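for the writeup, i need someone to sanity check this before i put it in the appendix. the sequnce is what the collaborator sent (i think, or maybe the updated version? ugh). structure was predicted straight from it, no edits. if anything looks off just tell me and ill rerun, i have time this weekend
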Amino acid sequence: MKKFLLPIFAIIMIAGISCQGEKKTASNKRVYPFEKATIVSRSEIHSGVSIRQDIYIDGYGAREARYTTTKMTYNDRDIETKALSMVTPDYIYTVDFQSRTGTRIPNDPDKVVEEMRKIIVSSKLDDRTKDQLISRLPEEKEAIKNSQTTGLVIKDFIKDLKPSGKEKLLDDLECDVYEIKDDSTGELQAKLYVWNYLPIKLVDVQGRVIQEVVSLDTTSVDTSVFSIPDSVKIEDWLETFANSIKQFEHQGK
């Protein structure tokens, strides 16, 4: 497994990137074993920085909204920020509630990359610059795929690990316990508690809880969480990309 605990934590708890592969829509395979869910997760990266995530799932993962509240102390000041990452069958959204701004991009990597290619080809950029930008499109496609997968599922992350035991959490969830060890030394770094491929708790070698799900309801979800407030200005990502290409054209003159 990973050598350092923080990258592990960042990958499976904070970034929200699913380790199972591409996000599935309602017409494809299910991301989660339940149709809907409301999950509250709390974590502490280090002293003075805490994160709460309110995660809402609908349609077995066809729609997923993750509201993240980060609190930190800096120069004796308490700072709080709130953000939203949301995936729907049609769009991927990111919202910053402090600036009341956000972006949306079609939830179709092939379509997005093709539109980007058309914008580049039809631009007034020189051929060399066009070729350079087009060569980077496969990377952009992978980035969009990663944006699709806000899911908590970590099936691929634990596929080579064997549970070291079982423990019940949140009253009645029987979790498999996985030991995360240093690749080179074999020393224990952390214990990961997993239920239905969902990370429920992460504990370091000293026994300190770094992240844990504090509540999990798989019977209901408030569908209003999938609506972005009118006070938030949403920009179309492809339009922003086209405008950046135009600015690039002017700089090249």
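Residues 237-251 form the longest helix (15 residues). Confidence is low (pLDDT under 50) at residues 1-27.
thx in advance!!
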